[in-house]
């Protein structure tokens, strides 16, 4: 959740209709003209913006177009660390905001690219936020350059090439996450480096110079035969009518000779590939760089890895390191590195235990089914999504207690709502998806929280739609057939995170930053602090829903996408939001959890004026069987719950059900006891229900906590431990019986489409 209007969220939770009104979501749109509709099976989307609705816009509400060069040919990327280059949020700033690539930071300006190394944290907002603020050490440009705007010339998985041109001169710089080098291609004049303070020159090697400025060490490299001229704080090199140069950030002046061999090995592309092996429960991710030798024959480069990478890598680390807002970065040498993570399974639901009160469950399901408005006034993508998720969680519970009529009634609710949204026609249809071919994105209308104007939060919103689709598919395979709703459902999914690099409709992984290991919420990243990610758990919810849907429809590409996103983000989330390793937050920062991760740091606040319970809970909800990752380390989960209790001086009172569910991952008996004492009087969080909370708590009270020491040869499993007793759970998404083998030798035969417990 990234838009400032989320500061109103706490008030809005008391009335979804009020939230819809605040977002302008009560507009009623006429059906899209038939000529403007793209049919996909039984579904459709429109290519015409609904009347009165807004698409991507600047801060004043004026439509904006992607800022790209004439030779740009790729799908438009948003929601990344560099998105303010392509999305001009503020009319008076055509250059973008601070860009945090780590270890380096940047900002484009008329005369070139500011470059800095933010290695010292500061505490702001009364100590609630820590930040490593961009402060330029120099500006890399061309003599006389006066570019009217910054544009994007191209990108790869974690790099971008920024263009600064004024008609006579052109500067193109390639920068990226983990790259200690800046690569520059110039034409129209000598390359120019202006330092922000008098530099100390400690090495001169003809075309290479070593300097220290503001306590940071850099090496400047020009082509062989070229020399650097010095005048006070300005260094220039005449690289000819069309030339190049690179600049390296050095951990120490002593490292000059270790970086020099890679000075002309320009990174031209970066690529992530991942491989999920169910048999070994292993996710292997390989990060590759493609380089071009401008001089010599060197290949590869030096790459700085974030903690979630270097702590899991199988590649040899050097002794080089940098500071970053995520903790220390370690350096590898070469053209690739690989990480390996264990996959701990993603279930569609928990089993219902016999010891639970099934009659109470049925009554609580009926309370949701027979409410005057099961949707609680929801009309936009986010609040409709939350309602879809709430009702979808009840379907397998009803099925598990033999309440078939209730199950089918819930499925009918889900189908009717989904089919309304997945079609662009119908009388006065105000629920539809619109494809913007300028921004290569699918926007649901009515929109909310800037999902249309700022392209915020698409994975947060659409994950609920994918959960609903997967739930329907679990019980009605014909509904999700290729002839009916599958094409439109997967189109919604691919807008948020597309695994197909050849699909020109959407960029690859819009809402996920593969090098960062997590997503970014803001479409435009138009903040001095870079981009932000608040609800890491809603991003995890999208990942779980993608994995489940992929398995149910037999699409391994989507299944593996979900497994990759879920496994990788779980590794990043515990470190960067909860400081699980103890080295992500800087010394002196007094909080042990942040509500938001920013490009430049972390913040113990959220986007609305919420309570401490909401600050913690926004990174837990929605609670689903895909949330078990929060309990992979029960001791850490217990510490997180105690952290909140200590801050409050009491047990949580707001979003009690979310915190009971989280507490149950470390102390299920205490969580169930708290529920039993209050279940008749508390108000559920808007995306939750009493039936689901009771089932979750009662199941964990019998099964115990998550046991990650045992894995299985399927994507959809979990193991629990209570003392010396283990409980094994697996789901079979296929139409044939499945025997699941666990790593301790246990086997479990699972009927088609069923959840089994052993």
Automatic annotation (TrEMBL):
Keywords associated with the record: Carbohydrate metabolism, Cell wall biogenesis/degradation, Glycosidase, Hydrolase, Polysaccharide degradation, Signal
Signal peptide interval: 1-34
GO BP term, example: cell wall organization
Reaction catalyzed: Hydrolysis of (1->3)-beta-D-glucosidic linkages in (1->3)-beta-D-glucans
InterPro entries hit by this protein: Endo-beta-glucanase (IPR005200), GH81_C (IPR040720), GH81_N (IPR040451), TAT_signal (IPR006311)
Chain ranges of the Glycosyl hydrolase family 81 C-terminal domain: 358-691
UniProt key word Lipoprotein: no
GO molecular function annotations of the record: endo-1,3(4)-beta-glucanase activity; glucan endo-1,3-beta-D-glucosidase activity
Pfam families (UniProt xref): Glyco_hydro81C (PF17652), Glyco_hydro_81 (PF03639)
Gene3D superfamilies from the UniProt entry: Golgi alpha-mannosidase II, domain 4
Protein's UniProt keywords contain Cell wall biogenesis/degradation: yes
Family: Belongs to the glycosyl hydrolase 81 family.
Protein name: glucan endo-1,3-beta-D-glucosidase
Organism: Thermobifida fusca TM51
């Amino acid at each position: 959740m990234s838009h400032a209007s989320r500061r109103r969220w706490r008030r809005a939770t008391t009335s979804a209709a009020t939230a819809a009104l605040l977002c302008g979501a009560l507009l009623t749109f006429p059906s899209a003209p038939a000529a403007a509709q793209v049919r996909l099976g039984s579904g459709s989307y429109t290519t015409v913006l609904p009347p009165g609705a807004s698409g991507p816009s600047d801060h004043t509400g004026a439509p904006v177009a992607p800022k790209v060069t004439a030779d740009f040919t790729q799908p438009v990327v948003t929601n990344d660390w560099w998105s303010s280059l392509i999305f001009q949020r503020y009319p008076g700033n055509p250059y973008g905001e601070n860009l945090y690539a780590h270890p380096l930071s940047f900002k484009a300006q008329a005369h070139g690219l500011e470059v800095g190394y933010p290695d010292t944290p500061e505490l702001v907002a009364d100590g609630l936020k820590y930040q490593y603020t961009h402060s330029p050490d120099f500006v890399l440009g061309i003599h006389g350059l006066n570019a009217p705007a910054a544009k994007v010339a191209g990108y790869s998985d974690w790099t971008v090439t920024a263009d600064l041109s004024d008609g006579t001169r052109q500067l193109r710089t390639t920068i990226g996450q983990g790259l200690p080098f800046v690569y520059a291609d110039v034409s129209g004049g000598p390359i120019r480096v202006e330092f922000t303070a008098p530099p100390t020159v400690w090495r001169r090697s003809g075309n290479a110079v070593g300097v220290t400025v503001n306590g940071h060490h850099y090496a400047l490299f020009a082509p062989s035969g070229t020399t650097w001229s010095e005048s006070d704080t300005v260094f220039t090199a005449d690289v000819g009518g069309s030339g190049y140069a690179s600049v390296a950030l050095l951990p120490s002046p002593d490292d000059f000779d270790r970086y020099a061999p890679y000075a002309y090995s320009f990174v031209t592309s970066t690529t992530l590939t991942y491989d999920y092996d169910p048999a070994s429960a292993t996710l292997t991710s390989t990060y590759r760089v493609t380089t071009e030798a401008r001089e010599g024959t060197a290949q590869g480069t030096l790459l700085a890895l974030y903690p979630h990478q270097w702590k899991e890598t199988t590649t040899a680390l050097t002794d080089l390191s940098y500071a970053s807002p995520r903790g220390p970065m370690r350096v590898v040498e070469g053209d690739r590195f690989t990480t390996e993570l264990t996959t701990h399974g993603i279930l569609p639901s928990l089993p219902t235990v016999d010891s639970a009160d099934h009659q109470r469950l049925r009554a609580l399901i009926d309370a949701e089914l027979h409410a005057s408005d099961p949707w609680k006034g929801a009309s936009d993508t986010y609040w409709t999504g939350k309602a879809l998720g709430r009702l979808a969680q009840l379907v397998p519970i009803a099925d598990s207690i033999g309440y078939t009529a209730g199950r089918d009634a819930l499925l009918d609710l889900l189908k009717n709502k989904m089919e309304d949204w997945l079609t662009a026609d119908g009388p006065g249809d105000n629920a539809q998806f619109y494809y913007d071919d300028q921004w290569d994105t699918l926007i649901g209308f009515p929109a909310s929280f800037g999902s249309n104007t700022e392209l915020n939060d698409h994975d947060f919103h659409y994950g609920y739609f994918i959960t609903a689709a997967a739930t329907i598919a679990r019980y009605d395979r014909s509904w999700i057939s290729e002839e009916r709703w599958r094409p439109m459902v997967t189109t919604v999914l691919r807008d948020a995170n597309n695994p197909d690099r050849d699909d020109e409709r959407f960029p690859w992984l819009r809402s996920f930053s593969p090098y960062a290991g997590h997503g970014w919420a803001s479409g435009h990243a138009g903040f001095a602090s870079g981009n932000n990610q608040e609800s890491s758990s809603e991003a995890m919810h999208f990942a779980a829903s993608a994995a489940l849907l992929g398995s149910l429809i037999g699409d391994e590409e989507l299944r593996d996408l979900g497994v990759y996103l879920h496994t990788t983000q779980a590794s990043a989330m515990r470190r960067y939001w909860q400081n699980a390793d103890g080295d992500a937050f800087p010394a002196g920062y007094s909080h042990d959890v942040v509500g938001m991760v920013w490009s430049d740091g972390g913040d113990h606040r959220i986007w609305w004026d919420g309570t401490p319970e909401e600050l913690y809970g926004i990174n837990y909800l929605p609670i689903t069987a895909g949330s078990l990752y929060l309990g992979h380390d029960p001791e850490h989960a217990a510490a997180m719950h105690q952290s909140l209790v200590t801050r409050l001086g009491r047990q949580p009172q707001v979003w009690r059900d979310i915190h009971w569910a989280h507490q149950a991952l470390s102390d299920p008996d205490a969580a169930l006891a708290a529920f039993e004492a209050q279940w008749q009087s508390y108000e559920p969080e808007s995306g939750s229900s009493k039936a689901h909370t009771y089932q979750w708590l009662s199941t964990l009270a019998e099964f115990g906590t998550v046991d990650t020491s045992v894995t299985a040869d399927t994507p959809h499993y979990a193991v629990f431990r209570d003392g010396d007793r283990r409980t094994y759970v697996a789901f079979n998404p296929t139409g044939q019986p499945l025997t699941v083998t666990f790593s301790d030798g246990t086997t479990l035969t699972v009927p088609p489409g069923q959840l089994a417990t052993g």
